[in-house]
Amino acid sequence: MSRLGNRLPACLACLRRLAQPSVSPIQPPTGVVLMQTRAKSNHMRPQDRGVVVRLLEDIPGFGRKNAVFRTERGRMRNQWYPANKAEYMTRQRFQELGLTEEDVGDRDRAFAALGQADEDDFVFEVVEKQQEGDKTPKMPITTAHTLISTLTPATLTFYRKVIEKPASEKAEKPRASRFKDTTLDIYGSVSTNDIANRIREYLVTDAEGRMVTLQPEDISIIGLEGNALKAIGRYGAQIMLGGSEDAGVQPVLKVVEILPEKEGELQKH
Predict the structure, then answer these.
(1) Which of 135, 169, 185 is the last residue of a domain?
(2) 87 φ, ψ (degrees, to nearest 5)
(3) Residue 118 counted as domain residue
(4) Burial 160-195 (b: 16+ CB within 10 A, else e)
(5) Cα dihedral 221/199/255/191 (nearest 10)
(6) Which has the closest alpha carbon to 220: 188, 252, 178, 259?
(7) What is the pLDDT of residues 144-153, one digit of tens each?
(8) Order of strands, edge to edge, in the sheet holding 86-88?
(9) Helix axes 192-203, 141-151, angle to 10 degrees
(10) What are 259's strand-pairing partners?
């Protein structure tokens, strides 16, 4: 008799027990197939650029009432929309307000300097200042121009998505710029409001700079009648605060540079 035959039990009960599947912490039950699962990867999923909204009230750190810009979906869905602080800008809403994609600006981060603690504190502070009256002496225009010139870099860079065109349509077109001209049009635009917001971001880093009052109307693009740039390139801009012409103050000159936004990258500014 073989060795295998010698190892088999002789009684029927033992044979029946061996034939039944057993559960062991070391060996899986007979007939059970173990499979390894992997978490779903979102590595190749394109990044979400958010939604376009319009503020229904002033929000520190984001902008004034009626400002139109992109923001995170979660913030709009969970915070602003339930509190009626902003509305979704659908195609129909764009038409009703007479707006286009060119009117979509950037978040006004400098607006946070008006109230860092809480939005309620911000409202209280503004009302209190209005009741007290304007007791703060107005900053001289020469001082304001000096602060804008020194606190702001010579070149203000913006990133925008380029509109792809067939090679046949890439003909030379005049651009309102005394720098390098291009024919790469962009989605949306870079407006004087965007430029003003960018300059304010630098001004709020300085105690005196926070006192400078800068409006989009104080900025003009050299050689351009409108207030929006719509192509990749470098453009000249001048800043003249209200009343600077009467004071005989020279304008502050800056370069506005628009660069292509990389594919799949969120709009930086």
Answers:
(1) 135
(2) -125, 150
(3) yes
(4) bebeeeeeeeeeeeebbbeeebbebbbebbbbbbbb
(5) -40
(6) 252
(7) 999 999 999 9
(8) 68-71, 51-55, 86-88
(9) 90
(10) 159
Is the domain of 207 the same as that of 267?
yes
Top-confidence residue, 10 or 234: 234
Residue 233 φ then ψ, to 5°: 155, -175
Binned at pLDDT 50, 70 and 90, residue 233 comes out as very high
Confidence of residue 125 (pLDDT cuts 50, 70, 90): very low
Last-in-domain residue among 103, 135, 167: 135
Instruction: Please give the tally of structural domains in the chain.
Output: 2
Query: Domain range spanning residue 123?
Result: 47-135
Query: Can you read off the two tokens belonging to residue 193?
Result: 């409001």
Q: How far is CA 157 from the centre of its chain?
A: 14
pLDDT band, very low/low/confident/very high, at 17 (cuts 50, 70, 90): confident
234 and 147 both lie in a single domain: yes
